Input
Amino acid sequence: MINIAKPCLEEAEIDAIASVLRSGVIAEGPRVAQFEQIFAEYIGVDHAVAVNSGTAALHVALMAHGIGKGDEVITSPFSFVATANSIVYTGAKPVFADIELDTYNISADQIHEKITNRTKAIMPVHLYGQAADMDAIMEIAQDHNILVIEDACQAHGATYNGKKVGSFGTGAFSFYPTKNITTSEGGMITTNDPNIASRARMLRAHGSKQRYLHEILGYNFRMTDISAAIGIVQMGKLEKLTEKRRQNAKKLSAGLKDTKDIILPVEKEKCSHVYHQYTVRTPHRDSLRDTLQEKGIGTGTYYPLCIHQQPLYKEMGYEASFPNSEKASREVLSLPVHPALSDDDINTIITAIIEWDRRLK
Output
């Protein structure tokens, strides 16, 4: 079986975990602080705050900026549900803007149409590992004096005009096992604002700066030193893993360029795509998925329903249509692109798709 995703874990990660266990400090401790410093330096920001999931990172980032009841946050309906849920957690309202069909990222033109006097922030999602149009988004934010909170949960190391995502506004990252690097579960908030960093640290630890002194309502969103130890090792591999993903994506695109019924992913001129997912689009998505499954090739559909189509959001009264997002949800299919793939694996994927494509004719 060629899996759709596979975490790259080796003896170094096992040794790092063992070292933490031997130390006796297994909750939040010195490894978390070290991981935060390494990650902040990598993204190019002054502060990074580790939490226990990407969802928590989004939630805390919003709360640290004071977003809450009565506020609106513009985001994409074509993402994992945590993007919008994190906004709902604060009492604010997600306002959806449609995507660009070539990148699957939120459209700056659509953002313009959604701004009201209640708009507090824009939350672009750097979907599949490619940055959204940050020049346009930052210009909108500055013109309207609103915040930018980047959902970079799939985009570790992705750049826009040479600048890493997560450094334009306040960033949120995930370290779930399928992500480009993992800590098993975990997340990170990135910011240049010391006040936002300080508030985020309080929010992740029951509203406390000092033990047993609770100044605000907070949560238990802390990362453990066990997770951080894995993350420290993974950070040392991130550039190499990213390059392997990019190489695999290049090979897939070269092999599939002559197919007639598949739209391949694009890399925008200003962007460096880190290919968390290599996502193709075809109106015959289910047929392609089933064919690859029969040949032992794993695939993923990210995402078969847009957020506004989910039962929860329908119940909340979301009825608008977003044509590009809905078309994407019917047609996207992600192929294996992870660093553990061999050349034989990639050739097997290409051959299977070409054979399927020819049969359609």
